[in-house]
Each structure stands twice: as C-alpha cells, then as structure tokens.
Amino acid sequence: MVRLILLTCCGVLSAWGNIATAQSATAPAGYRQTDYDAPVPEKVTGAVTVDDDAAYALWRTGRVAFIDVMPNLPRPKGLPADAVWRGRSRQSVPGAIWLPEVGFGTFDVAAERQFDQGLKAATKGDKNAPVLFLCRADCWMSWNASKRAVAQGYSRVFWYPEGSTGWKFWDWPTKRLKVFKNQ
Q1: What CATH homologous superfamily does 37-73+89-177 map to?
Q2: Which terminus of the chain is more exposed, N or C, with fewer CB under 10 A?
C-alpha cells in the first residue's frame, strides 16, 4: 500500500514537472512580432540565460550593463502639443538603462537609433563588454532585444527572463529609471 502511494505521488510529481516545463515557448526564426506578454523560450541563441541569483550576482559586480526594455506608454492621440506627457514610471534595477522602444519585433528609425546609441553608451562602444537585457516575466521584449544584440555582434549578452518581476520578488533594490535620451 505504501509503495502504491509512493508510485502515485511520483507519477503526480512527474506529470506536474511536465506541465511546468510545457510553459516554455518555441523560439521563432526571427523576432516575436505580437503577443509580447506570453511564455518565452528557455534561451536566446548566442546569449546566456540567467536566473534571479545570477542576475543579482552580475549586478553586484558593477561590470555588466543592464538594459531594461519595458515599453513606455505612448503619448495619447489628441493630447495638445503643449500638454506635459511623462509616460509611465519604471522601477527597475539600479543603474539600468531604460530603452523602452527596442523590444518590439520590428524597429522604426527612432527605435533603431535608441537601440544603437543606448548600447554604445552602456558598453562604451565595446561589443565585447557584458550586457544584460530584462523586461518582466513572460515578456518577449527582452528576448527580442537580446537576440538583436547578438545579431549585431555583441559577444557577451545575458538574458534575464524573469526581469523586474523576479528582481522585485526578492526585494532587491530598485530605482526609478528615466528613458534613455538619444544623443
């Protein structure tokens, strides 16, 4: 009887483990174009996927540029030109650079400029400098940005799929970020 209960429990745990891993998505050949808030793949080809502890350890070194790609709220259509618009406030990893337009699957000219100039500023123009991308849990934006950095020749790319969700869960320090301004 005890053996039957043990086998049943093991079967339930094994099935639960399969359900948990079933949440990982299949990586597209290109960039994710829609439904950015959804389960993400386990890795970005050419980048190193890091968990909460590894992300915190990298941050503590002070030698890894953190790039937050959480999108900002667009200026409402019809808002008078003289009305102040600040978008959303972003609490994230202290020292991170906020590049809110670079996680989409397709770039416009402004987003491409923001990505290029933001990465150059973060890495001091060194494509071998370590850089880590984050957004929040189940957000394809950081996956897209990590993949794009690898495609542009950055050789030490880290992807933190839990992003600010994981960071805040552990009550690690956060700071209000300002959107990176193109030079």
Answers
A1: Rhodanese-like domain (3.40.250.10)
A2: N
